[in-house]
Amino acid sequence: MATPLPTPGVGRAPTESTDTGGACASCALAPEATRLARLGLDPGRYSHVVALAGNPNTGKSTVFNALTGLRQHVGNWAGKTVARAEGGFSYGGVGYRIVDLPGTYSLLSASADEDVARDVLLFGRPDVTVVVVDATRLERNLPLVLQVRQITGRVVVALNLVDEARRHGITIDVRHLARELGVPVVATAARRGEGLPDLLAAIEQVATTDDPPAPLRLVHHDPELERAVATLADQVAARFPSLPNTRWVALRLLEGDPGIEAAVRDGSLGDQAAPTVEAAG
Amino acid sequence: MTLDELPRGDRAVVTSLDIRGGARRRLMDLGLLPGSAVHAEMTSPLGDPTAYEIRGALVVLRREQARAVHVEPEGR
Prior knowledge:
The structure holds 2 protein chains of 2 kinds. Chain A is α/β, with parallel strands linked by helices. Helix content of chain A is about 35%, strand content about 15%. Chain A has a 7-stranded mixed beta sheet with strand order 1-3-4-2-5-6-7, sandwiched between helices. In chain A, helix 3 (about 140-150) links the parallel strand 5 (about 130-135) and strand 6. The radius of gyration of chain A is 19 Å and the shape is globular. By secondary structure, chain B is α+β, with helices and mostly antiparallel strands. Chain B has one domain (about 5-75): SH3 type barrels, CATH 2.30.30. In chain B, about 15% of the residues lie in helices and about 40% in strands. Chain B contains 2 helices and 5 strands. Chain B has helices at about 20-30, 65; strands at about 10-15, 35-45, 50-55, 55-60, 70-75. Chain B has a 5-stranded antiparallel beta sheet with strand order 4-3-2-1-5. Chain B starts with 10 loop residues before the first strand and ends with a strand. At the A-B interface, helix 3 of A face helix 1 of B.
């Protein structure tokens, strides 16, 4: 039987992909991930939006390329992913659109890259946010994970570069980390395709769940601050009832974050508009 | 003492940040939080800026920024 390669731009993914194993024999994902069809630039009709976030130099673009089959430039300098790259893939017959965000250490500081990343997460409301972290520098990467977790519970952590970590003698207790963060954690070495089938399964699970974990709630030990956050969060909730992360918004307002202030003022914070921009290509 | 006074090659632990607003946020995003271990790695010829090792990454700070970071030097 003919085994056509998934062609970029075709749009619909083959729903029965059991016979495409041969076509993918040379790629890193074969044979476990034959449910994957890389759709390149054109996600066609997609059901879910996946955002890729992470610190600079964690291998985000490598993960992006592995999932979409694109050859987005992978390189090691600041601001490489200037705005955001978009692509598509199909997994288990369901279309996904994937947005590669600029590498950031934070969602809170005032830089254009961080604003792009934050706006996609906050206003685009992706179905899944994959936070790619560097297993060799986990401590430095976790603040961003916690910031994303405060915005949404629909998170998968890709613990990337585990091959490098192994070489450095670093072992990470993935299950414990997942329990602490309350979201799936998948060990990956995206360069070699290691862990990608598990990553895809975790993305599918989070994308399709009706009951995602609640956004992480930071408890403030200063009662006055806690009171201010609670009061403001109630007002935000009254004005934007569909917003899942009112405490996070309240904290940003207390910090005097100009972007959030503007979004509250002009009402765009409550928009249920389609995520991000029109499909690429 | 403050971080700018930490001699090259010495280690210290951050005790507090004497700075507010976006600049404080930035330092925290770079991993400078109370309790963080810091190692003064390299100094440029004129002594400013200085590179510090923080949580496995090299972070370069101007003297002005380092002055806002209070540290407890590690005895050796």
